[in-house]
Amino acid sequence: MTPDEFRRYGREVIDWIADYYENVESLPVLSQVAPGDIRAALPSDPPEHGEPFEAVLRDLDDVLLPGITHWQHPSFFGFFPANASGPAILGDLLASGLGVQGMLWATSPSATELETHVLDWFATLLDLPSTFRSSGSGGGVIQHSASDAALVALIAALHRVSGGRTEREGVGSGRYAVYTSEQTHSSVEKACRVAGLGADALRKIPVDPATLAVQPTLLREAIETDVRRGVTPALVVASIGATGTGAIDPVGELADIAHQHGAWLHVDAAWAGVAAVAPEFRWINDGVGRADSYCTNPHKWLLTNFDCDAFWVADRAALVGALSILPEYLRNAATESGAVIDYRDWHVPLGRRFRALKLWAVIRWYGAEGLREHVRGHVALAQEFASWVAADDRFELLAPHPLALVTFRLRAGDEATRALMERVNSSGELYLTHTVVDGKVALRMAIGGTLTESRHVQAAWQLLSSP
Ligand code: PLP
Asked: What stretches pass through the bilayer (predicted)?
């Protein structure tokens, strides 16, 4: 593609995206295709001769769009949001255009230094403790996802608790344990599997029935039982905004218990953490100053296209110690000087995209003020929605809802609740997903779309509450 062709098709693509955002509301939120429909519409063999880009755009409309579930639809209330924005899309496009691979400082100093700087900015925006800033012993890095953050936190924790032995000897069988609430996201169990500890190394600590937060006394008991048996506690994961219910664990207390036994405390605030851009929600981060690592996803609720997980550590030496390998072909003067960050040592892969560009673009476009308004708007809508649920005798709320997730059900029971979800989702008018709380099927109304307004939440309640 010549620069002129790129210019022409590039304009068409930008127009396509702008039209998509203008019209997304008129599309069914949930894709209505059956398994295999999309592949059946694609040619079985790749083209022998190059095709004009118009053909790609045509198939995007005709073949692929029906198989898209519209995450950017204002009535998408499923899972947690993965909201996007113009500045993030353009930042991502620029990163693709530059096509740099920022594995080392030397392979693109701007990619590394902007990332360090933007993560410091972001820590300031969230008022995170100084322990996480790059000016001290900590620092931030963009991970692909919160699941990667949990995995690298576990690898760093194993490094620290074993004095570096796990890198050489592996983790053995039944030697180390990981602790988290029974409400925590499945990524923690996956991290145990990937790190070779196995799912049996994970202790799921029961939650308080009222707050759905982990019970510190039960964590302490589980750790003490392990220590008596000769098992080493490696990692405790606290949730700020657990996936099913939005529960917030008592991070400070959990950190104290973890540290008394030499374990690492990681905070998974994948969805909720970004709410701290607004001072009135900063209480969610109480106790985070005692954590060893913390992650939150701008790619969920802060206008930054997937993928962008912000991950901070208080002691970068543990992370780098766990992950650094320096083969001859990566040696260079800047690395040897010790004066630079090489982000290849801060995550699992070697190569990395220039993801800081999109976060930088978002922060600059919206400013702290715009980001606060974004989060506040969704929280206000969720509070209104929760008040309608509470006022309707047929429904009950199942969890505290201080932010923008409302977990609720029909009092008529599991079957009726599931049937309601299927009815509203198949209408194409909105999309929401479910969880199980205390053995009961519950619906999750996660409000956070960039385009979501009060009228969309009202229409959702209309649909949910009409027989
Ligand atoms: N942690 C929590 C609390 C989540 O809600 C999720 C996803 O919804 C994850 C982790 C996993 O996120 P990611 O897709 O970034 O790995």
From this structure: none
